[in-house]
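Researcher: I'd like a structural prediction for the single chain below. Treat it as a standalone chain; there are no partners to consider.
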Amino acid sequence: MTKAGAVDALGALAQQTRLDIFRLLVRHAPKGLPAGTIAHRLKLPGPTLSFHLNVLAATDLVRPHRNGRSIVYTANLGRVQLLANFLMENCCGGGRTAGCRIPRSEKQ
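Model: Treating it as a single chain, here is the predicted structure.
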């Protein structure tokens, strides 16, 4: 992942509604949820949801898939893994993220 890609992804998630949408989709991975279900569960009007889903899709954090007449959105977990790897790539001197231990107080 490039630095610009990381900034875009983090920027997309740095908004409460988009973060709520993304976390809901992660809970329902890998199947995803139809847009109407997302709107209902998060109590969002359609145009607001559409705007936020478009921002998340533009950064490839979510992916839309047509299912008949509805659109199902899924969290792109591979993209999130790339973002996490990018953020941690210099951990413990670089290239050894598997050996890094996060102190218990920092896990929350």
